[in-house]
Amino acid sequence: MTTDREFPAPPWRRERGKPRRQLNVDVIVDAAMRVMGAEGLDAVSMRRVAHELDTGPASLYAHVRDKRELHELMLDATMRDIPVPEPDPERWQQQLKQLGLDQARLMARNPGIARIAMETLIPTTPGILVAMDAMLGIVRSSGLPARLIPAACDGLALYVTAFAYEASLWSSAQDSEARKRLEEINVYLDSLPADRVPHLAAMREHFHDDEIDHFEFMLDVFIAGLAAQVKANAATSSAAPATAPGADSPGR
């Protein structure tokens, strides 16, 4: 029996394209991440992502409100890859440092994500909230007073994000361009009058000391400061006089 499949298609008939992949938030975010990786964050727009998915921008708006929400979803997808430890009061300093390292390295590997984090006022997506909760849990296990925990976490998150953002600026430039710019800066700094900037001149040779990881050093300093605060608070609490049960309160 002969079937239509044995006949060639006539030249006026349009060739059937591959079926489009069904759209959902994950598919859209994956496409946006690909665009960012290949062309940079500035290239990520609803129109460009729609083109990546071989569809029109209108079809994306059924799943994502606008470019700002798309950026936040990209940040969320990245943060979901960060391991979340169970808070351990005996190891809180090591856990906090590892969490900071993991976050910084992940954002540095995805240039543009740190910039999104800096520009997002209050992230509220699940992946970001889980990462925030992990940091809060670790710092809570340290014994730091509850009223100081939000400030500690905010400061650490800001430092980690700012470092990753700075690293992404260098990585987004071409290697030759970055090297040329760095050489120009070094030549200019070497030309500065030492009598006008004596400390800058004295420290020049240490600016690019490869034996010191600046990010990890400052992360250690930050966590050591928190540990000192925990210790000071414990000492203050133990030194405070206990109030005897039933004793009159001051002023009575």
TrEMBL record:
HTH tetR-type domain mapped to chain residues: 22-82
GO MF term (any one): transcription cis-regulatory region binding
This protein's UniProt keywords: DNA-binding, Transcription, Transcription regulation
N-terminal signal peptide: none
Keyword 4Fe-4S listed: no
Pfam families: TetR_C_1, TetR_N
Gene Ontology biological process terms, A to Z: negative regulation of DNA-templated transcription
Protein name from the UniProt record: Transcriptional regulator, TetR family
Natural source organism: Amycolatopsis marina
